Amino acid sequence: MNPRASPVSTLLAGFVGAVGLSAVGVSMRVLLGAPLPFEALFNSLTQFLGTPAMFQFVHATFGYGQGGKIAAFVAVMLAWLGGLTLLRLLGPTFGTAITFLVTALLIPMPYPIVYALLFLASHFALQPVTHDPRRRNALRWLSSGSALLLLGGSVPLLRTLSGSSTAPKSAWTPVDGLPIGVTAQKNLYYVSKNIEVLDPQLNPETWRLEIGGLVKSPRSFSLSELQALPAVTSERTLHCISNPVGGDLIGNIRWTGVSFKALLEGVGVQPGARWVTWRAADGYVESLPLRDVFEGDVLLVYAANGAALERKHGFPLRVLIPDRLGMKQPKWLTRIELSASEVIGYWAERDWTRTGYLETFSRIDEPRGAIAAGVPQTIRGVAFSGTKAITRVEVSLDGQRTWLEARVEPRRSPHAWTLWSLPWTPIVGPQRLTVRAYAAGVMQTATQRESLPEAATGWHSLDVVTA
Asked: Under CATH, to which class is 185-350 assigned?
C-alpha cells in the first residue's frame, strides 16, 4: 500500500508541474506562435483596465516606460502558476478538467486540450515522487530548481522595470553620425500594448500585407514588392499620447517607405469607402477617415535612418500619419481594409481619444547637470506641432515674469520638429526656466493637462541651481 502524499509534497509537485507546463507553453509560443494562456489573460486584463484613469495611476506609480506592463505581467504569470499549483490538490480528474475549462476561456482550440493533457501528464509523472518518502527530498530539489528557473527568466523583465526612465534625451546631441535633431533608431521611444518580449516577431520572407475591403482589386504585397515600389524618404517626428509635458516619448527619424495614397490608387477605391482600418499582427487596430489619406502624406515605412525597422519599432512595416499621435499609427501591419464606417481603435474602445490629434509641444533639453554662474552657455530644446510650423519660441528665466525670444532653426521637413536655442549667462542661485512655443502664430496653451485621454498640454519648466 502506497503512503499518502503530504499536502506540502503535493503543492511542491504542483509548483514543479506548473513551471514545467508553462515552460512548454512558452516554447510553443516562441517556436510555433501558439497562444499562451497567461499572455491572453494579461491582454484581457490590460483591455479591461486600459482606461485613462487607470493608466494615469500606472504612469504615476511606474513611470512612462514598460514598468507598469511588466509588473502586471509578472503578477498575472504568478497567479497562473499559483492556480496550477493549487489544482494539484484536486487530483488528476478535477485538475485536468479545470485546466481545460480555464484555458478554453482564454485561447482557441485545440490548445486547451494540449494544456489539459500536459497537466495530466505532469500529474502522473510526479505522482511517484510525492507518494514515496524516499523521493520527496528529490522533489524539494526539483521545486527549488524550478523556482530558480522562474527567477532567472524574470531577471530580464525586472532589469527593464528598474531601468525605466523619463529623463529627456537632448535632440541637440549628434548620435551615430546623424544630423543634429535626428534620433537614432535605438534611442527612439518604445511603447506597445504588449511587453517587449512578446511583441510580434515576423518573418520577412513569409510576411504579407493584405489590402482589402472596399477596393477594386484586393491585393497582397510581400516586403520585397513594397521595397521595389518608388521609395519616399521623409524626416518625421513621432509623438506618443502618453508623453508628459517635457517628456521624452517623442523622436525624429528619417523614415523610408511608400506612399499609401499611391498604393491605394494602384488597387482602386470603390464608391462608398469612407474609412481605412489598420490591423497589426498583435491584434492592435486603428482607423482613419479615408479623406485624410488623400489630403495628407501617409507613409507605409519599412526603414529608419537607412536601416530596416527594428522589431520593437514595427518590423517589417508600420504606418506614419501626419498630425496624429503615435497611437493612431500602428506597427507590425498585416492588413489594411477600406470600409463605409469607422472601426473603433484599440485604445479608443477604452475611452481614449478617437481622433488622436497633436497638441503643440515644447521642451527644454539643455542645460543639464551642474551649472556655473557667470559662464555663458546656451539653452536648447525642441518644439513640435505637426505640419503647423513653429513660428516663435519664448523662454522665461525668472518664473514666467518676462520672456525672451529664442532662435528658431529652419526645419528640414514639414513633418519634423523644430530646434530652438537661446544664449544665456546664468546668475548665482536657483532659477526656473520655462519654454512656450507658437504654432502658425498661435501660442501653446499654458493649461496643464494630463496625457490621457488626449495629449498632455502645458509649458515645460526646468529648475536649475547655479554656484
From this structure: alpha beta
